[in-house]
Amino acid sequence: MAVSLTWHGHSTLALEIDGARLLVDPFLDDNPACSLRAAEANADCLLVTHGHFDHVADAAAIARRTGAAVLANFEIGQWLARQGVPAEQILGMNLGGRVVRPFGRVTMTLAHHSSSLPDGSYGGSAAGFLLEAGGKRIYLAGDTALFLDMKLLGLGGLDLAVLPIGDLYTMGPDDAIEAVKLLNARRVVPCHYNTWPPIAQDAAAWAERVRRETAAEPIVLQPGQTTRL
């Protein structure tokens, strides 16, 4: 199966897996790094890692317009229902849970981060996602600190890991290097950086460290660029 990943800046990712369109953490209209507008985005499935505004901002509007299924934790699912997303589109999950979708299997993984929703309500546990689809294993870390159990996620082999490097709110470049080592992924894409000055990072310098200090191939995308697996 053909698998591609497009980075739309910050933590917003679009994946296409044998024709199925996935959109991760849709933050488009207020994302200064993104040229794609929410009204133009198409998706068959939305994946939401946690409740912060810069990850859920456009989720409800896109889900209502497209009819996309939404995979998120239970609390985010309840919040989306209050935003008018039909209940039959929402699949509330929790850490360690797995579901099979037409494009493949999705596991909700641990992330060490906070999670509150834009209205201040409780956003449940922050998470990442492990996708087993198209003959590939893809780890989307979400917003997280470094944690040792990343080694377990890499035991089955990873074709691609998407990791935050911005620091301050997530792990920074040093800890992201250690994450690459624990995950033992073949390729790695950085995210959650350079959206605003507090998370400014030199992704090219980080990529050089990945090449020098790990066995992974770094792929630094500009917003709107695509890589194929």
Instruction: Please identify which CATH superfamily we are dealing with.
Output: Ribonuclease Z/Hydroxyacylglutathione hydrolase-like
Largest β-sheet summary: 7 strands, mixed
CATH topology: Metallo-beta-lactamase, Chain A
Give the helix tally: 6
How does CATH name the architecture?
4-Layer Sandwich
Q: Which sequence of SSEs, written as H and E, runs from N to C?
A: EEEEHHEHEEEEEHEHEHEE
Report the structural category.
alpha/beta
Rough outline: globular
% residues in beta strands: 25-35%
Radius of gyration: 16 Å
Describe this structure in words.
It is a single chain. With 229 residues, the protein is an alpha/beta fold. It has one domain: Metallo-beta-lactamase, Chain A (4-Layer Sandwich). Helix content is 21%, strand content 30%. The strands form 2 sheets. A 7-stranded mixed beta sheet has the order 6-5-4-3-2-1-14, with helices on one face. It has a 7-stranded mixed beta sheet with strand order 7-8-9-10-11-12-13. It is globular and about 50 Å long. The mean pLDDT is 97.
Structural descriptors:
alpha/beta, 21% helix, seven-stranded mixed sheet, single chain, 229 residues, Metallo-beta-lactamase, Chain A, 14 strands, globular
Explain briefly what this protein structure is.
The protein is of the alpha/beta class.
Layout of secondary structure:
Layout: E1 3-7, E2 13-17, E3 20-24, E4 45-47, H1 53-56, H2 59-66, E5 69-73, H3 74-82, E6 90-93, E7 98-101, E8 104-110, E9 127-133, E10 136-140, H4 150-153, E11 158-164, H5 173-183, E12 185-191, H6 203-213, E13 217-218, E14 226-228
